[in-house]
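TA notes, week 10

Several of you asked for a full example with nothing omitted. So below is the full record: structure tokens for the whole chain, then the designed sequence directly under it. When grading your own attempts, check the secondary structure regions first.
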């Protein structure tokens, strides 16, 4: 979950490394550091805290055209300067940055200590530069030493290393993302494309077992045996401006407001003559599917619930399994099972592990992701892209909406392909309403009621979110967003669950946000009234014409639309509620404590 940047080229590297780290800070912000190689040694600068803290400690930028940088999300050891990356060997000749977890670092550290190596941090990463140094001393061959070092490691890693006196960056990956950026006068390595998107959109997505050597005028990719490997060069279609905040105070606020564009991109070209079309998946592609398993984590899990409900309505056996529990909680899997990995980044460790397990049991696999070339997209049998564009804020917003819409479209493709399945009732009306969804989101963003409501309930003890049907996943997602960025206690429930225990927690200081969609809402209404009878203020969230509004204490409205999409409009209101409450509380909205954007370690 840490962020890596490396650069080789003409001119000084430091400013490029620092701007790359700023673009990657959503991946980790406990500490940050850079190392630059300038022909007179490897100069390391690092500190606890954020990238701004690192910049403030650099009175002058270190000179050198080759360097590596890192922004850390702590796994081994607290977020101190000593534990910040880059880490070096005892002499300071080898510097390394690392994303992942080294499972055998205790054993390696003990062996290295016996050989005279001294350690200064609590991290697993620090064994890597010492291993490289140890093997260099034996052979004098740095590339061979790097190759031997990574072969020694057990666990997951993406690493980049520089060595005193060498105009090279060495890098390798296994289980953690690493992408190579190609420009006319410089090369880049990073955990994610936004790190260097200001410089180039030409990329190579590295694969497990790749070892890369970057030099000022060339690059080489080999396998761990040293044999050359060819990887395709892709063009990223993200605009560099998409990765900036623009006029907004926070990335999250910008990304909430960019949902009309993201959804338009998600939908474009996928509804043809009243049918659903996906590139590379013609009609009949899913004719042999007998059951579906969605595997996902966090926000992606809530989006998968949207797909589950529509597939069940179509008569297709379906379940949603939390990826971290797939090995023990998944139902039967065979060659008639379609395992759908829902992952924004395509790099979520638990989801990748789950889909690999499903494939090993005979399932067909499909990735629904935002990132072309991601591990999930490469490893799955097929991939569908949600086309949301880069999302920098740690709390997912536009990607949830685009995931839910993509999965809803997928369910209709499946319902048309699978024998004996039944497409959703009023399918034509549902798809027509979908094409209006971007404009409806725009109208929600213009309503402006949320700020005053966030202020009114700011000092509450707790916040409950309830919903039924499509409103259930929105209630869960609304509660997740609220707790992620406000640090206030929030819980989401299926409407009928409230009276089976949680009602004991309801007081006049527990506002209940009741999400309704215009379908299957009676339980939401009755349970909201029961909570209101215990003193709880009720905020109705949904279309204007509904009986719940008559009894609610406040209302967050959305345009009238098909019930399948009303929940997504309600979700936009709840995203705004969370954002404005967090802003009033002066929380670090884009970088909530203890969280990272892409969870690439288990």
């Amino acid at each position: 979950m840490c962020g890596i940047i490396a650069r080789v080229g003409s001119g000084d590297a430091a400013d490029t490394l620092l701007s790359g780290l700023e673009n990657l800070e959503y991946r980790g912000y406990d500490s940050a550091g850079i190392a630059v190689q300038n022909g007179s040694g490897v100069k390391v600068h690092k500190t606890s805290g954020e990238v701004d803290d690192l910049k403030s400690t650099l009175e002058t930028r270190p000179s050198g055209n080759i360097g590596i940088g890192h922004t850390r999300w702590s796994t081994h050891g607290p977020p101190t300067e000593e534990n910040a990356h880059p880490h070096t060997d005892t002499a300071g000749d080898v510097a390394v940055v690392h994303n992942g977890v080294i499972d055998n670092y205790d054993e390696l550290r003990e062996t290295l200590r016996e050989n005279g190596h001294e350690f200064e941090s609590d991290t697993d990463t620090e064994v890597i530069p010492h291993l490289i140094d140890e093997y260099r001393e034996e052979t004098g061959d740095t590339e061979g030493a790097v190759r031997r070092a990574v072969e020694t490691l057990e666990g997951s890693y993406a690493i980049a290393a520089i060595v005193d006196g060498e105009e090279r960056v060495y890098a390798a990956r296994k289980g953690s993302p690493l992408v190579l950026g190609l420009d006319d006068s410089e090369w880049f390595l990073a955990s994610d494309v936004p790190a260097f998107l200001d410089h180039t959109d030409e990329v190579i997505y590295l694969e497990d077992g790749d070892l890369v050597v970057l030099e000022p005028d060339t690059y080489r990719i080999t396998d761990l045996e040293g044999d050359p490997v060819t990887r395709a060069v892709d063009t990223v279609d993200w605009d560099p401006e998409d990765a900036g905040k623009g006029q907004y105070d926070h990335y999250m606020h910008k990304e909430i407001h960019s949902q009309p564009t993201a959804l338009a991109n998600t939908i474009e070209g996928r509804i043809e003559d009243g049918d659903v079309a996906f590139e590379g998946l013609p009609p009949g592609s899913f004719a042999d599917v007998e059951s579906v398993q969605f595997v996902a984590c966090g926000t992606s899990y809530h989006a998968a619930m949207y797909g589950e409900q529509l597939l069940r309505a179509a008569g297709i056996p379906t379940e949603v399994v939390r990826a971290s529990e797939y090995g023990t909680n998944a139902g039967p899997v065979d060659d008639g099972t379609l395992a759908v990995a829902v992952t924004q980044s395509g790099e979520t460790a638990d989801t990748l592990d789950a889909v690999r397990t499903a494939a090993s049991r005979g399932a067909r696999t499909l990735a629904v992701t935002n990132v072309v070339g991601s591990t999930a997209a490469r490893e799955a049998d097929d991939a569908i892209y949600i086309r949301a564009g880069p999302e920098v804020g740690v709390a997912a917003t536009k990607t949830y909406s685009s995931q839910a819409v993509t999965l809803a479209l997928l369910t209709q493709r499946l319902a048309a392909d699978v024998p004996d399945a039944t497409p959703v009732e009023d399918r034509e009306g549902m798809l027509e309403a979908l094409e209006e969804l971007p404009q409806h989101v725009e109208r929600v963003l213009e309503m402006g009621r949320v700020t005053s409501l966030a202020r009114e309930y700011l000092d509450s003890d707790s916040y409950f979110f309830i919903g039924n049907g499509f409103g259930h996943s929105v209630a869960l997602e609304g509660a997740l967003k609220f707790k992620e960025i406000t640090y206030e206690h929030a819980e989401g429930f299926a409407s009928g669950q409230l009276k089976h225990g949680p009602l004991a927690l309801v007081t006049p200081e527990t506002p209940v946000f009741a999400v309704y969609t215009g379908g299957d809402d009676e339980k939401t209404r009755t349970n909201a009234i029961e909570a209101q009878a215990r003193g709880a203020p009720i905020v109705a969230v949904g279309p204007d014409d509904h009986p719940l509004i008559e009894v609610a204490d406040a209302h967050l409205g959305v345009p009238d639309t098909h019930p399948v999409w009303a929940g997504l409009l309600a979700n936009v209101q709840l995203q705004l509620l969370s954002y404005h409450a967090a802003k009033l509380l002066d929380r670090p909205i884009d970088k909530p404590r203890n969280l990272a954007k892409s969870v690439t370690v288990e």
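DSSP finds 19 helices and 26 strands in the chain. Use that as a sanity check on your answer.
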